TrEMBL record:
It comes from Paraprevotella clara YIT 11840. This is Outer membrane efflux protein. GO terms for molecular function: efflux transmembrane transporter activity; porin activity. Keywords: Cell outer membrane, Coiled coil, Membrane, Transmembrane, Transmembrane beta strand, Transport. InterPro entries: OMP_efflux, TolC-like. SUPFAM superfamilies: Outer membrane efflux proteins (OEP). The keyword Membrane applies. Residues 341-393 form a coiled coil. Belongs to the outer membrane factor (OMF) (TC 1.B.17) family. The keyword ATP-binding does not apply. One of its GO terms (cellular component) is cell outer membrane. It is found in: Cell outer membrane.
C-alpha cells in the first residue's frame, strides 16, 4: 500500500512537468520567432518610425497656423510740453499779416502693462521642389523600412530553421552515441564473461573498456550539445532559455520537384532595397538643387495690440489684418550650393556602381547555393547507402565474431565504422536542409508576405 501511495505521488509530481513540455513543429517555431523575436520587434519599430516621419514631411504641403502672445510691463513714463505763445501767420506772398495764440501741447505717457496677441498663417507656394523631394525621400524611407523588415524576417526564419534542425541533429547524435554505448556495454559483458571462463585474454577486455570510456564522453558531449541547441531555439522563438520543449525527431522534408534557377534575384529584398537606395540618391539631387531655385511664400496675420497710456487714454486697443508675400532668389553663394548638387550626383553614381556590384555578388551567391544544394542531395544519398552498408557489415562482423571467425579488433572497427556512418548520415541530412534553406534565401523565396 505504501508503494502504491508513493507511486501516485510521483506520477502527480511528474504530470506538471510533462504538461510544461511543448511539442513544436517547424511552422510553429517560425511563427513564434516572427512574433516574439527581439530583432523582429526592433525592425517593426524602425518601420513605425519611418511611417511617422513620412507623415511629418507630408504636413509641409499644408499651411502652418501659429498663435502667439506677448506681455510687457514697464514702469517707464514721461511727458512733453511745447508751451504756449504767439504763432505768426503769413500771407501767400510771404508777408506777416497777424499773430494767433497757440495754447501749447502737453503729452503725458505711461507704458504700464501691454499685450500683443495674434494668429499667423504661413503657406509655402514654391520652394524650388524642396518640399516634394523631402516628402518623396520620406516615402522611400518608409518603403525601405518595410523591405528591411522583410529582410529581417528572412534572416530570423533562417536562424530559426538552423536552430530547429540543429536540435534535431543533436537529438540524433545523442541516439547514435547511446546506441553505440549500448552495443559496447553488451560486448564488454560478453568479453568479460569469456575472460572469466578463460576464453578471452585480459587485453580484449581492456580494448573494449577503452572504447566504452570514449563512448561515455561522446554521450556527455551529445547531452551538452542538445542542451545548447534547445536554449538557442528558445532564444530565437522568444521563450525563456530553460523552457523544456520538444520537437520532431525527423528532419523537415524539402521540395523534391523544386525548380532550381540561377539567374533571377529580383525577388530578394536586398535587390529591391538597392533600387530604393538609388531612387533616394536621385531625390537627394533634387533636394540640393532646390537651394538654387527661387522661393515664394505667403503669410497672413491678425494681430491685436493693447496698452500704452497717453494722457490717461489707452493708445493701442485695436486689431489689424496683414498679408505678406515673400520672394527669395539666391544669386551667388561662392559655389556652396552648386557643389552640393555635384556631390549628390557623384553619390548617385556611387550608389549605381555599388548596386551593380552587389547584384553580381547576389547572383554568385545564388549560383553557389544551387550547387551546394545539388551536392548536398548527392551527399545525403551516399550517406544513406553507406549507413546501410555499415549496418550490414556490423551484422556480419557480429556473426563472425560470435563464432570465432573474426578478431575483436576487427569487430570493434566494424562497430566504429557503423557509428561514423550513422553520424555522417545525420550530418548529411542536416546539411541538406540547411543548403535548401540557404538556396531559398538566395532566390528570395524563403519568406513572402
Amino acid at each position: 500500500m505504501k508503494k502504491i501511495i508513493i507511486s501516485i505521488l510521483y506520477i502527480t509530481c511528474l504530470i506538471p512537468q510533462l504538461r510544461a513540455q511543448e511539442t513544436l513543429s517547424l511552422k510553429q517555431c517560425r511563427e513564434m520567432a516572427l512574433t516574439h523575436n527581439k530583432e523582429m520587434a526592433a525592425s517593426f519599430q524602425q518601420t513605425e518610425s519611418a511611417r511617422y516621419t513620412m507623415k511629418s514631411y507630408k504636413g509641409n504641403f499644408f499651411p502652418n497656423l501659429t498663435a502667439n502672445a506677448t506681455g510687457l510691463y514697464s514702469t517707464a513714463d514721461g511727458g512733453y510740453s511745447s508751451g504756449s505763445g504767439q504763432l505768426p501767420i503769413f500771407s501767400s506772398t510771404g508777408q506777416l499779416q497777424q499773430f494767433a495764440f497757440f495754447p501749447g501741447i502737453n503729452l503725458d505717457y505711461k507704458i504700464g502693462p501691454m499685450f500683443l496677441g495674434g494668429i499667423q498663417l504661413e503657406q509655402p507656394l514654391y520652394m524650388g521642389g524642396k518640399i516634394q523631394a523631402a516628402y518623396r525621400m520620406s516615402v522611400l524611407g518608409n518603403e525601405m523600412a518595410q523591405i528591411n523588415e522583410t529582410l529581417t524576417a528572412t534572416q530570423v526564419i533562417m536562424k530559426t530553421d538552423d536552430a530547429y534542425v540543429s536540435m534535431i541533429k543533436a537529438q540524433e547524435m545523442k541516439k547514435v552515441a547511446e546506441k553505440y554505448q549500448t552495443v559496447l556495454t553488451e560486448l564488454l559483458n560478453n568479453v568479460e564473461s569469456a575472460h572469466r571462463h578463460g576464453l578471452k585474454p585480459r587485453n580484449d577486455v581492456l580494448k573494449v573498456q577503452v572504447k566504452l570510456n570514449e563512448s561515455e564522453l561522446a554521450v556527455r558531449k551529445a547531452d551538452n550539445a542538445l542542451r545548447l541547441a534547445t536554449m538557442n531555439l528558445c532564444h530565437l522563438i522568444g521563450k525563456p532559455l530553460d523552457t523544456p520543449i520538444r520537437i520532431s525527431e525527423d528532419f523537415p522534408e524539402i521540395e523534391q520537384r523544386m525548380e532550381i534557377q540561377i539567374s533571377d534575384i529580383s525577388a530578394r529584398p536586398e535587390y529591391v532595397l538597392l533600387d530604393k537606395q538609388e531612387d533616394m540618391a536621385r531625390q537627394q539631387i533634387k533636394l540640393n538643387r532646390s537651394e538654387l531655385m527661387p522661393k515664394v511664400g505667403l503669410q497672413g496675420a491678425f494681430n491685436y495690440l493693447h496698452g500704452f497710456e497717453l494722457n490717461d487714454e489707452t493708445f493701442f486697443k485695436d486689431g489689424s489684418f496683414s498679408v505678406l508675400l515673400n520672394v527669395s532668389l539666391p544669386l551667388y553663394h561662392f559655389g556652396e550650393r552648386s557643389n552640393k548638387v555635384r556631390a549628390a550626383k557623384a553619390k548617385l553614381e556611387q550608389t549605381r556602381l555599388e548596386k551593380e556590384n552587389l547584384n553580381e555578388q547576389m547572383l554568385l551567391e545564388l549560383t553557389q547555393a544551387a550547387h551546394n544544394l545539388d551536392e548536398a542531395k548527392m551527399e545525403c544519398q551516399i550517406a544513406d547507402r553507406s549507413l546501410e552498408q555499415a549496418e550490414e557489415n556490423r551484422k556480419v562482423s557480429h556473426s563472425q565474431y560470435t563464432v570465432g571467425l573474426e578478431s575483436l579488433s576487427d569487430h570493434l572497427e566494424a562497430q566504429a565504422l557503423w557509428q561514423q556512418a550513422y553520424e555522417t548520415q545525420v550530418n548529411a541530412h542536416y546539411q541538406l536542409y540547411l543548403s535548401y534553406v540557404k538556396y531559398k534565401k538566395a532566390a528570395g523565396t524563403l519568406y513572402q508576405h
